[in-house]
Amino acid sequence: MSKKIDYKKDYKNLYLPKTTPEIVDVPLIWFFMVDGSGDPNGEEFGKAVEALYSLSYAVRMSYKTDHVPEGYYQYTVFPLEGIWDLLDYTKPATDKSNFKYTLMIRQPDFVTDEWFYYFLEQVKSKKSNPYLEKIRFEQATDGLSCQMMHIGSFDDEPESFKKMEEYCQEHGYQRTSKIHREIYLSDPRRTEAAKLKTVLRFPVKK
């Protein structure tokens, strides 16, 4: 296990962008995913996050067990990510109860379908969380996108999105969807709102 992956170093272009907008081409990536809706400050959101982390850490710590995936290497667990949309487009975007989301955590390339189901059963035998029943293992890509690092409260994200859209207009790109991705590099339970680091990203075309 000489190989070791740290997403902040090895995938810096995807996880540590500048605090100014830039264009990036995102490849296909394997994730553990779960869908949900409603206020992200609510209990259901917390259960969904817990389910994803429980499964991701089961994979990460498997080297200490008798069931280690072939090709396993040491790595830093990837951060939580979310694709955000609205349930009802006639309601204001500030209505958090109207949020629709897909939460996900990237997985290392040695994880297969077989290992996904194995670890899922292992975690389900130890933890009671209804969202474990909803987790899936799928590929996703944002493709050509505009992104930037947002530092501050989640409620202040519209200011960063405005900068991103202005950048796209100035450089000949067009936003192709109101859906966007957020990558959470800070723990909001331990970090004051003004210092939260969140990667913001939305798809574009030239």
Return Rg in Å.
18 Å
* Total count of domains: 2
Strand content: 25-35%
What is the number of helices? 5
The H/E string reads: EHHEEHEEEHEEHEEE
Task: Report the structural category.
Answer: alpha+beta
Descriptive overview:
With 206 residues, the protein is α+β, with helices and mostly antiparallel strands. The protein contains 5 helices and 11 strands, in the order E-H-H-E-E-H-E-E-E-H-E-E-H-E-E-E. Strands 2, 3, 5, 6, 7, 8, 9, 10 and 11 form a 9-stranded antiparallel sheet that branches. Strands 1-4 form a two-stranded parallel ribbon. The relative contact order is 0.22. The model has no long low-confidence stretch (mean pLDDT 96).
List its salient traits:
alpha+beta, Multidrug-efflux Transporter 1 Regulator Bmrr, Chain A, two-stranded parallel ribbon, 5 helices, 11 strands, 26% helix
Q: How does the SSE layout of this entry go?
A:
Blueprint: E1 4-5, H1 7-10, H2 12-15, E2 22-26, E3 29-37, H3 43-60, E4 74-75, E5 80-86, E6 99-106, H4 113-126, E7 136-140, E8 143-151, H5 157-170, E9 174-175, E10 180-184, E11 197-205
Helix pairs in contact: 3-4
Could you provide a short overview of the structure?
The chain has helices at 7-10, 12-15, 43-60, 113-126, 157-170; strands at residues 4-5, 22-26, 29-37, 74-75, 80-86, 99-106, 136-140, 143-151, 174-175, 180-184, 197-205.
